[in-house]
Amino acid sequence: MSCHDSRIPRPRRQILVAALIAGLLVVVGCAYSLPEEPADKETSGLVRPPAPEGELPEALRSRLQTTLDDTMAEYDVPGAAVGVWIPGEGAWTTATGLADIETGAPVDIDMTWPLRSVTKSYTVTLLLQLVDDGEVSLDDTIGQYVDGVTAGDEITLRQLAGMSSGNADYTNEEFISAFAEDPEKVFTLDELNGFMLGTPAQFAPGTEKVYTNANTNLLGAVIEEVTGQEFTDVLRERILVPLGQEDTQYVVDATQWSDPHPTGYAPDAGVLAQQPQNFSIFGPAGSMISSLDDARVWAQTLAAGALLQPATQAERLDGAPLAAGPPYDDYALGIGETDGWWGHNGEGLGFTAAVFHHPDSAATVVVLMNESNLTSHAHPADQMFRRVAQILTTGAQ
C-alpha cells in the first residue's frame, strides 16, 4: 500500500512516516587494479571535468554488471543507474531495471535522481566558499545568524558542518505529525529549522559527532542570511552554472521534477510500496536532484576541492569517525571518507545514492537506486559502491 493512500489509519501512517524519517540519513573473476599513476586531476571551478574516453575493459565491465545484478537481487532494488570512470582506462555506465514497477518503465541513463544527503556536500561547499570570500568564519557561532538555537552562542559553523554541534534534529514528533497530516505540504527552510529551535541539545558542542539534518539546514539559513539570496539562487550561481550542471537542481516542490523520472520505493508489509515525493522536508540537507553524469562531475570536484582555496579544502578534509550516522570511516566538513574514497551518500523516501571519488587514482563511482529504508538497515547504493571500490582496488569479490 502506498503512503499516499488516505486509507492508512492515522496512527499507522505516523509510524510509517517515522520510519521513513529515520532513513533520511544513510544507515547504513579476474583481478583488476587501478593505474598506479593517476591521470591528470587538474580541474577548475569554471571548467566541467570531462569524462574519460572509451570503455573499460570488457572483462571488468562484465564483472561490474554482475556485481550490480547481484546487489539489486540481494536487496530487491527495482532500478539503478551506475557509473564507473577511470581516467586513462575508460568508463562504464549502465541503466538497469525498472524506474516504475507499476508501469514497467525502464530506467533511462539520462534520468535525474534525488541525491538526498549528497546535497549536504553542496551546502557545505557553499559555506566554505563564503569562508574563502571572507564573508564568514568557521569559528563564527550559529547564534550570530540564527536566533533561538539551543547553545547557539557556543555552536560554531565548523561544528555544524562536521556534525559535532550537539543539536537535536528537526525530525521530531511535531514534524512527523505535520508531515503525516499533509505529506504533500511544501515546507520552507524556516519551518524546518523552526521544529528544532529551542529543543534540548543531544550533547555539549564539540564533544561528540552525531549526524543530523538540522545541522546542514541551519547552514542553509546562514548562507541565505549572508548572501541575501535564496539558497537555490546561491547554489546555481556559485556551483551549478560554473560546472555546467544543467541536470542538477535544488527542488522543494516535487511537481517541478520533470518526467520521466524514477519512482521511489521502500518495503512495507513484505512488498515494495511507492513513497511520497516531498523534497521540501529535506531542505539544504537533502533536496537536490541530479543526473548520473552531473554526479560524476560533482564527485570529482568535491574530492579535489576545485571550488575552494587549497588551505580551505585541507581544513575541510580534517575529520573523525561518527558516533552515529552513515558508515564512513571518517566524516569531515560535509564530506565523508571510506578507504581513501571521498564523497557523500544519501537515503530517504524511496531513494539511495552514493557519489565518491578516489583522489589517488582519479577514479569515480556513482550509484543511484530507487529503494530505501530496508528493514535490514542496509543502504543498497552504498553497498554497491563498496563492492565496486573493492573490485577496483583489490580485485576481490
Characterization of the model:
- With 397 residues, the chain is α+β, with helices and mostly antiparallel strands.
- The protein has a single domain, classed as 3-Layer(aba) Sandwich (Beta-lactamase).
- It has helices at residues 10-22, 58-75, 119-132, 157-161, 173-181, 189-194, 213-227, 231-240, 292-304, 310-316, 380-394, and strands at residues 79-86, 90-100, 105-106, 112-114, 249-250, 265-268, 271-274, 288-291, 330-331, 336-338, 341-348, 351-358, 363-369.
- An 8-stranded antiparallel sheet has the order 3-2-1-13-12-11-10-9, with helices on both faces. A 3-stranded antiparallel sheet has the order 4-8-5.
- The two termini are 37 Å apart.
- Residues 1-20 and 22-45 have low confidence and may be disordered.
Which descriptors would you attach to this protein?
single chain, 397 residues, alpha+beta, Beta-lactamase, 8-stranded antiparallel β-sheet, 3-stranded antiparallel β-sheet, 11 helices, disordered N terminus
The biggest sheet, with number of strands, parallel, antiparallel or mixed sense and barrel status, is: 8 strands, antiparallel
Strand order of the largest sheet: 3-2-1-13-12-11-10-9
Order of helices and strands: HHEEEEHHHHHHEEEEHHEEEEEH
Number of helices: 11
Structural class: alpha+beta
Helix content: 25-40%
How much β-strand is present in the residues? 15-25%
Tally of domains: 1
What is the CATH C level class, in words? Alpha Beta
Annotation, overall tally of beta strands: 13
Mean pLDDT: 90
Alpha-carbon distance between the termini?
Answer: 37 Å
Radius of gyration based on Cα positions: 20 Å
| Unreliable runs | 1-20, 22-45
- How would you describe the shape? globular
Q: Determine the CATH topology.
A: Beta-lactamase
CATH superfamily: DD-peptidase/beta-lactamase superfamily
CATH architecture: 3-Layer(aba) Sandwich
